Amino acid sequence: MTGNQKKATPAQKEYQELAKKTVPKRKVVPNTIRAFLAGGLICTFSQGLQEIFIHFFHFEKSQAGNPGSAVLIMLSALLTGLGVYDHISQWAGAGTAVPITGFANSIASAAIEHRSEGYVLGVGGNMFKIAGPVIVFGTFSAFVVAIIKLTIKAIGGI
């Protein structure tokens, strides 16, 4: 035992045992299946959008993902504003949190929550509280990967 750890009292142990008994068990398999299905449907819808932009709007294949992503972001923000996205994400779990739609939902929900504080200090100041770390760590990760790739390329690996 380190200096910061204290021995649990009998009352604390009793409480922990009671808490373990009353906490509902996670349904891992059904939750995983729902997350897989929801994330897969979002990605399939996104692929359909790309195909629409390629065939009907004559986008190049390499550029069709950008307007498809924009449509997903707008739909996610709209569904968040209407209160529908929360119901979908409660059912689907991580399946809606991982794709770009979850990112848009986190920004839109924070903006909606703080709109009573005004547009600048409320909406503008608070909408990136949740999404900000994702942006920071995503950018940092891309930087680290680029440095690793350049280092490997410089020593003749790639």
What does this structure look like?
The structure is a single chain. By secondary structure, this protein is an all-alpha fold. It has one domain. The chain is built from 8 helices and no strands. Helix 2 crosses helix 3 (65-81), helix 3 (65-81) runs parallel beside helix 6 (100-113) and helix 6 packs antiparallel against helix 7. The radius of gyration is 22 Å and the shape is extended. The model has no long low-confidence stretch (mean pLDDT 87).
Keyword list:
158 residues, mainly alpha, 8 helices
Could you tell me the strand content as a percent range?
Answer: under 5%
Ends: how far apart? 49 Å
Tell me how many strands there are.
0
- Helices and strands: which structural class? mainly alpha
The shape, in one word, is extended
Could you give the order of the helices and strands? Answer: HHHHHHHH
Give the helix tally. Answer: 8
- Please describe the biggest sheet, giving its number of strands, its sense, and whether it closes into a barrel: none
Provide the domain count.
Answer: 1
Enumerate the spans where pLDDT stays under 50 for 5 or more consecutive residues.
none
Subunit organisation of the chains: single chain
Secondary structure: helix percent? over 70%
The overall pLDDT, averaged over residues, is 87
Rg (CA only): 22 Å
